[in-house]
Specification:
Helix content is 81%, strand content 0%. It contains twelve helices and no strands. Helix 1 runs antiparallel to helix 5, helix 2 packs across helix 5 and helix 6 runs antiparallel to helix 11. This is Type II secretion protein F. InterPro entries: T2SS_GspF_dom (IPR018076). It is a multi-pass membrane protein.
Length: 291
């Protein structure tokens, strides 16, 4: 059995080497692509080649679209399909490495199949965990935007009420948030500002901002601005105040959810602490009973 697992490992390594030799020149820029959570882009060409030959985007369009939508929300709309393929290649690379590692562990265990079984199980569970982590990042991004959007809207209302235009109000808000450009909301707003400075109309830049955020709350904000910003005056401020009230209620709901999640994470440490205290207090009592 040891020879069997050793031969399987050698076959997997040779196959990967052949695929890498065939595909490395086809994806010269993949090593420079950066995506949060991606670490194996340097060895991704073989898996990219397999995905391309399998035409996964055509055979599994729903699955591919869901992954692409999540990645586009995190990384932006540009090169969404390329980054989706890179993410899928990362999943396959981990699975391939775990299968190879399972063969190696089985070889070290003198032919025991449990080592390979462990690698095979992990090769299935790890891609699932990567997908769940991707979706959780999208959810955290949405929560961050909802938590910050009402506060930004209140500042815009005050500035517009003082006589500024919406563009001027957004620009003044961004000047005070230069140190928070990594925040999802402000990153997209800085992109909006760059588009306006590059020649886009404010309406076009605002529509692009809404499309990149891909959230109902942001769409409601941009719709309210586009419908009313030309009017100005009290009608515009009143429309923004109604929206602000709705967004503050959603912010309260998100804050409550985050608080409940934080308290639930403390349950396990508290239970462990309780068990430790019971052991520390109960052990001397049992020892005295034995005496």
């Amino acid at each position: 059995m040891a020879l069997l697992w050793g031969g399987a490992m050698i076959i997997l390594l040779i196959l990967w080497g052949l695929l890498y030799r065939r595909s490395s020149h086809q994806y010269p820029g993949v090593a420079k692509m950066e995506l949060d959570g991606i670490r194996l882009q340097r060895i991704a060409p073989p898996m990219l080649y397999i995905l391309e030959q399998a035409k996964v985007s055509q055979k599994l369009p729903v699955f591919f679209f869901k992954i692409q939508r999540s990645i586009s929300r995190i990384n932006g709309q540009r090169q969404g399909a390329e980054y989706t393929m890179l993410f899928l290649a990362e999943m396959l690379s981990y699975s391939y490495l775990l299968l190879t590692g399972g063969c190696f562990i089985a070889l070290l265990m003198k032919g025991e199949g449990s080592g390979f079984l462990t690698g095979a199980v992990l090769s299935v569970l790890l891609p699932v965990a990567l997908i769940q982590d991707l979706h959780s990042k999208v959810k955290r991004r949405e929560q961050q935007i909802i938590l910050e959007l009402p506060e930004l809207l209140n500042k815009i209302i005050l500035l517009v009420g003082a006589g500024s235009t919406v563009q001027q109000a957004i620009k003044q808000c961004l000047e005070r948030k230069r140190d928070q450009e990594a925040h999802p909301l402000y990153r997209e707003l800085f992109q909006l500002q760059r588009e306006c400075e590059g020649g886009y109309s404010f309406a076009q830049a605002l529509e692009g901002f809404s499309r990149r955020c891909a959230m109902q709350e942001v769409s409601a904000f941009t719709t309210a601005v586009l419908l009313n910003y030309r009017r100005g005056g009290s009608d515009f401020v009143l429309a923004l105040r109604d929206l602000s009230h709705t967004l503050w209620e959603k912010r309260k709901a998100v804050s409550k959810t985050l608080g409940e999640q934080a308290s639930s994470k403390l349950v396990f440490p508290m239970v462990m602490l309780f068990l430790i205290i019971v052991i520390l207090v109960g052990t001397p009592a049992f020892m005295m009973m034995d005496l």
